[in-house]
Amino acid sequence: MSKNKELTFEEAMEKLEVIVEKLEEGDVPLEKAINYYQEGMNLSKLCNDKLKNVQEKMAQIMNEQGDLEEFDIQEEE
């Protein structure tokens, strides 16, 4: 992941999907699989952080508008 340009949520998800596909193929050498896994975990954290940030912004907007009903992002298990 480039330090110069932070990925958008969509870009991170696309990269994560490619990594998952490669790992699911099963014919990746161990060292490369570990690198893919580490990159995938970093991308997953980035996506999760972006979603939390959006959730916080939406809660702030709702509070500013006087809308008292809060929402919560449901995580898949």
TrEMBL record:
GO molecular function, one term: exodeoxyribonuclease VII activity
InterPro entries linked: Exonuc_VII_S, Exonuc_VII_ssu_sf
EC top class named in words: hydrolase
Source organism per UniProt: Virgibacillus tibetensis
Gene3D superfamilies to which the protein is assigned, alphabetical: Exonuclease VII, small subunit (1.10.287.1040)
Subcellular location: Cytoplasm
EC number, UniProt record: 3.1.11.6
Similarity comment: family membership: Belongs to the XseB family.
Key word Cytoplasm present: yes
Protein's gene: xseB
Name of the protein: Exodeoxyribonuclease 7 small subunit
Source superkingdom: Bacteria
NCBIfam families according to UniProt: PRK14063.1 (NF010666), xseB (TIGR01280)
Keywords of the record: Cytoplasm, Exonuclease, Hydrolase, Nuclease
Subunit structure: Heterooligomer composed of large and small subunits.
Protein purpose: Bidirectionally degrades single-stranded DNA into large acid-insoluble oligonucleotides, which are then degraded further into small acid-soluble oligonucleotides.
A Pfam family matched in the record: Exonuc_VII_S
Catalytic activity annotation: Exonucleolytic cleavage in either 5'- to 3'- or 3'- to 5'-direction to yield nucleoside 5'-phosphates
